[in-house]
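Exercise 7b. Backbone tokens:
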């Protein structure tokens, strides 16, 4: 008996558009949540704003000095 092998070609899908749509939906949900908290829960929003100012938007201080050599390593 002859056995024939079938060649299955796998074509990768272009996932750029679905990823962009998913990211846009996530950003929209976060913005809607922040707006709802801002308008309906003012005291919670002020606590959230203070937390963001101290933890997320804090200033970065670099205390180490990096001496770069100008010579080649080759």
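Sequence design result:
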């Amino acid at each position: 008996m002859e056995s024939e092998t079938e060649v299955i070609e796998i074509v990768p899908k272009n996932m750029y558009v679905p990823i962009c749509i998913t990211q846009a939906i996530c950003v929209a949900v976060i913005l809607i949540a922040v707006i709802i908290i801002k308008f309906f829960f003012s005291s919670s929003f002020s606590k959230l704003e203070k937390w963001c100012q101290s933890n997320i938007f804090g200033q970065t201080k670099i205390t180490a000095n990096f001496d770069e050599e100008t010579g080649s390593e080759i």
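Instructor comment: The longest helix spans residues 16-40. DSSP finds two helices and no strands in the chain.
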